[in-house]
Amino acid sequence: MSQKTDIDPVYTEQIGHGNSVAAWACVLTMMVGAIAGGIAFANLNWTFFWVSMGVVVLGLVLGGVLKAAGFGVGGSRSGAAH
After folding, report:
1. Helix (H, G, I), strand (E, B), or coil: what is residue 81?
2. Membrane-spanning residues where (predicted)?
3. Cα–Cα distance between 82 and 72 in angstroms, integer?
4. In sequence order, which residues have a C-beta less than 8 Å from that of residue 17 and are 6 or more positions away?
5. What is the pLDDT of residue 81?
6. Distance CA 76, CA 19 (A)
7. H-type helices in the chain, by residue range?
8. Which pTM was predicted?
């Protein structure tokens, strides 16, 4: 007697982990902003701190724009497009 096992297709998909130009640009830009913001905060330089937080927000926008332009996971302009 054989048992039929139904596997949810979600569990059989390959996980991409966001390895794309859009994801890398977003994360690296946000990381630079966060590090600069931490240094500015430690030195009580509030102007530079807020500029750095603006860079973090810019990283989010940059990632979204690049994803919309096709550089996200599976995007038309990404190297891993199928």
Report:
1. coil
2. 21-42, 48-69
3. 12
4. none
5. 45
6. 14
7. 9-12, 21-42, 46-66
8. 0.73
